[in-house]
Amino acid sequence: MRPTLRGATVLVAVAAGGLVAVNGGREALNAVIAPLVVAGVAAIVIVGVSSRPSLRRRPVAPGYVGERRRVSFELTARRGTVVTVTDELGAGLEADGNRLERVLSGTTELSYDLSLRSRGVRSVGSLTVAVQDPFGLLTRRYRYDETEPVVVYPPVYELRPAARNRLAGYVSDATEFDRAVFEHLREYERGDSLRDVHWKSAAKRPDGDLVVKEFVADDGLDRLTMAGTVAAGDADDLAAALATLADHLFEMDVGVVLWLPGDRRVEATPATRDEAFLALAELQAGQVAADHREDADIVVEATAEGVDLSLSGRPISFADLCAYETSPPDTGTTDVEATAESAGGRHAPAGGTA
Asked: What is the pairing mode between strands 182-187 and 211-215?
């Protein structure tokens, strides 16, 4: 428990008044000193008997770079407790309202808006609660080291119509996808994809019936394999390029297999897209093994000059594939129930042509 600036001023005033009272004028000073002493004693009692408020944080919804999210938490304390709350922000996050002054009424919800400035798994906290008396004379601080993770996905850019068509054409022309783990062969059934037919086995059958490959947990989705590596460039640029391609492939109802620096393998479908974007939020600079690069359908490489793609062995500048800005107007959506599946909010990348 320590005095505030106002409390220190009152203390000096009381001390000075006491000295004056000793030398005379006691009756005149009583009208000034007595209320200050009463207020000081009341402040000591109020702050002294205060207990540590309990804290319960709520999850912060993931978001893309440039978006906002709502940070919410509950404090529970004696009704009428005056507090000043300060929530610390991790790197890559900004907020103007993370210092709040409130009078708690039992369980009270507090919140503020958070701006997501850079990719990564960030955090908010620790949190400091300063309990004050109603006169603002004394304060007692409580610190809560609990933090809440904030996942910031890389930005997703809009592709030019020609680039989208080219990507869709490549998907439809591809004949080999890493769909799942092969399990066994079975007889062909109406509706099975011809690309799953095991022609060699069918040719050996006396009846000539077709057989198809059965996969473990086969969901029927095509999958495109992408390998991303950072040679001498920026890991953020690589993450943004991979996120953009994955996002457009998900829109085409195509799954992805990502080989990321450190030979990390991530497989995701449109239904599990968050797994891919979480991995891209965590992506660090590094290389991918040569065999994974050779087997990939698309190789994405961040260099000192920018990000290049190798599509069917042909190099393409990622910036040249991207279109004008298509960011929707800011709707102010900050609800914690917001999902990360906002294909909107795409931006033209630095270096891209309009």
From this structure: antiparallel
Query: Is 246 within 8 Å of 317 (Cβ atoms)?
Result: no
* 272 plus 292 within the same structural domain: yes
Residue 280 and residue 300 in one domain: yes
Banded model confidence at residue 27, pLDDT cuts 50, 70, 90: low
Sign of torsion over alpha carbons 39, 42, 48, 52: negative
129: left (phi over 0), alpha (psi -120 to 50) or beta: beta
* Strands, E assignment, 133-281: 138-144, 148-153, 182-187, 211-215, 223-230, 255-260, 264-268
CATH number at residue 119: 2.60.40.10
Let me know whether 255 and 318 are in one domain. Answer: yes
Q: Are residues 206 and 66 in the same domain?
A: no
In this prediction the pTM is 0.76
Structural domain range at position 198: 181-219
| pLDDT tens digits for range 142-201 | 999 999 999 999 999 999 998 888 888 888 765 444 444 455 677 888 777 666 777 777
Of the pLDDT bands very low, low, confident and very high (cuts 50, 70, 90), residue 333 is very low
Q: How many domains does the chain have?
A: 4
Kindly state whether residues 135 and 235 are assigned to the same domain.
no
Same domain membership, residue 124 and residue 20 = no
Q: Which of 219, 290, 228 is nearest to 258 (CA)?
A: 228
> Which helix (DSSP H) or strand (DSSP E) does residue 194 occupy?
none
By DSSP bridging, strand 120-132 and strand 138-144 are antiparallel
Distance between CA atoms of 207 and 205, rounded to whole angstroms? 5
In this structure, are strands 314-317 and 223-230 parallel, antiparallel, or unpaired?
A: unpaired
How much is the pLDDT for 73? 97
Instruction: Please tell me whether residues 215 and 108 are part of one structural domain.
Output: no
